Amino acid sequence: MTAxxxxxxxxxxGKQRIAKQIVEKxxxxxxxxDTIFYDLCCGSGAISIELVNRGVTPNRIIxxxxxxxxxxxxxxxxxxxxxxxFDLLLADLPENKRGIxxxxxxxxxxxxxxxxxxxxxxxxxxxxxxxxxxxxAGKWENAFxxxxxxxxxxxxxxxPANPMQPSPKELRRRICNLIExxxxxxxxxxxxxxLLNCNVPSNSVVYIxxxxxxxxxYAFGFDVCxxxxxxxxxxxAPIFVSEGMPLNNNAMQLHFGGAKGGxxxxxxxxxxxxxSRF
Length: 278
Ligand SMILES: C[S@@+](CC[C@H](N)C(=O)[O-])C[C@H]1O[C@@H](n2cnc3c(N)ncnc32)[C@H](O)[C@@H]1O
Known about the structure:
Elements: H1 19-29, E1 37-40, H2 46-53, E2 61-64, H3 68-78, H4 83-91, H5 100-109, H6 116-125, E3 134-136, E4 139-141, H7 168-181, E5 186-188, E6 205-208, H8 224-232, E7 239-243, E8 251-254, E9 273-277
Parallel strand pairs: 1-2, 1-6, 2-5, 6-7
Antiparallel strand pairs: 3-4, 7-9, 8-9
Helix pairs in contact: 1-2, 3-6
Bound molecules: S-adenosylmethionine.
């Protein structure tokens, strides 16, 4: 991302590494200073955060996710995130990193209470492989956590792997910055189909990041092409969809940059990222 705000933690399918390329396209498609940006299936918020880092004011962003991220962003946007309760949770974490996994497992066995927005980012920051943890009928599900890991004499990786990433201190720093920088975003913590009952002005820009076809491990899903067809009947706004493949003839492949890039600094691996415009 450009500067400043960062996603709270890694998340399955999170777009932080390609947010810049995606947001570039969304900004080019916006034709006025009043454009409203819809970040549908916002998850950890990589796209909305990049929009704000690029100067879009939070009150021009509407996020949506039916998972606990929806509750988190609703609280952040409305200024309702309970930092005092969040700090109590962080203060309660075991100092010994070897105790974190067991602690998280216990925390995830307690019923989901009114502090879902504060508990969830802590659980998700410890999730094994960044996999989605979700609530179902008042319980946390798919909650599996990382262990503290130290290299042995023969392991390739030479540094220990922490059970919580980022660290509690860094998670707090990122969330405090988000509370300040993202205040004013609106978030709908609902199923995406609910949006079909809302007015989506034609000068909006809509971005959708659904669970990719064939991926497992998400609690929720929907048929994105069917949704786009239904939304198109309601608005003329440009609609962009992320997928691991092109969805129409108006699709572009995105590239991962970074230290592991090839000669040009970009890398095209097995995993593909495409953005299709409708
Ligand atoms: C690929 S992830 C989005 C990642 C996100 N863009 C980010 O950068 O973190 C897909 C998201 O879609 C959400 N989702 C799946 N089905 C949904 C539905 N029917 N309604 C609303 N959200 C849904 C999931 O909860 C998940 O967070």
